[in-house]
């Protein structure tokens, strides 16, 4: 880079707050590029609504520790920006989604960074440089790990580390996850840093729950090593009320395979040996995590009024999904009738318990290590589309059980072929075994048949919306489940949903 590189002018190099006007100028110059690039990212939550503007929340440049700005080592630009969607005219504000972006800028991109290109701003502090996805650049990804090694603050960013944990140096970064809700970088096959993309005020459950589980001695979840947040209030240009969790560093389970891959492999085997042993062990692992979460964090009792509230929330989600996806409408009335029965579960003083749960449990969120065949759970963020406050509320464990049962159905629908195992038999056997494994350490999910059925419907409805937005080709998978669930009651262990 030349000495004249605008990256090293003070404007973007300082935290916002000390140069809010400069941050605005930077974001304004990037806006035309982001309008084109952001909607193409899998993690972009606002698909289908036009982007009409951006506003900076915070702009920070990360430099190598102990080194001042230098033309020879440009830093990692850390941006928090609000994306305005919908009708133009209104300035972006606190009601709009806030995204975490990590950008690099260079005069010319080496070939290995060509796929990471975002574009060249025509004006502003980065004019003349090519802006690119910074995480794809090992040199910039290393800056982030280096910063996480040392607790402390950098402008609006706060870096923290568990007191007894160490972050080794010299770990080579590798970006994974084009098809995910967030972005993750693996360092030296030993650590993985997950960077949340759509961020909001309040601790992210993907930091909160694994830390609580680690403190409770539960070894089913990789324990956070370090994390970083954006400060609340005056550090953010728009006065955000609580700190926002931005990234979590945790041990990388090298040599592990996720449950989705294992399920598809099992379905592809013509002999159809099934998945029962794995599903039973998985049920026990989930039960263990639920027990530990109920010990570590507050639980609440659900009586009829709370069940009414639950049914109303499910009904609202159904209404919104049917509004957005016309194919759901023929089942709307039948599903609503099922929800209407939910409050009756609280008749005659019968109570249920709600606690903190995983919240988006499926086969892609469970990893089995090859060495000992042990299951671990990851990604406690909850359903990314839901507001953070809602995801942090105690919920019935049936929600997680339902999530995994739906996932067996997904695997059977996607991987059950003529040459391999029969999808329907495979799913029935996996569901039954999962529930048996769960019952061995917790309680029999079949005792919650009504609650489970309502949550399976709620999950399938969520999936219809998710697939319509992200993978329209997969929409028939949850729609088929909705059709079956709308047709009649079903309890655990019987025919697959
Ligand atoms: N601790 C870990 N060890 C090994 N692989 C992991 C670990 N955490 C995440 N992964 C891998 O990264 C992928 C994405 O992680 P996840 O937390 O599910 O992110 P997202 O919210 O973006 O889906 C997982 O599907 C898994 O393959
Ligand atoms: O990105 P996340 O892992 O947090 O979760 C989202 O994406 C999932 C798909 O990657 C989606 O899961 C759905 O598809 C899975 C198969 O790809 C299937 O196993 C799940 O049962 C099904 O829900 C998940 O819903 C979504 O939140």
TrEMBL record:
Which reaction(s) does the protein catalyse, per the Swiss-Prot or TrEMBL entry? D-maltose + ATP = alpha-maltose 1-phosphate + ADP + H(+)
Source organism phylogeny:
Bacteria, Bacillati, Actinomycetota, Actinomycetes, Kitasatosporales
Can you say what this protein is called?
Maltokinase
The Maltokinase N-terminal cap domain, residue ranges:
37-137
Keyword Membrane listed? The answer is no
Q: Which domain of life is it from?
A: Bacteria
Q: What does the UniProt keyword field contain? A: ATP-binding, Carbohydrate metabolism, Glycogen biosynthesis, Glycogen metabolism, Kinase, Nucleotide-binding, Transferase
All copies of the Aminoglycoside phosphotransferase domain together span 182-408
* Pfam families, A to Z: APH, Mak_N_cap
Species annotation: Streptomyces luteosporeus
Question: Which family does the record assign?
Answer: Belongs to the aminoglycoside phosphotransferase family.
Provide the E.C. number(s) assigned to this enzyme: 2.7.1.175
- How is the quaternary structure described? Monomer.
Q: Where is this region: Disordered?
A: 1-21
User: Pathway membership of this protein?
Assistant: Glycan biosynthesis; glycogen biosynthesis
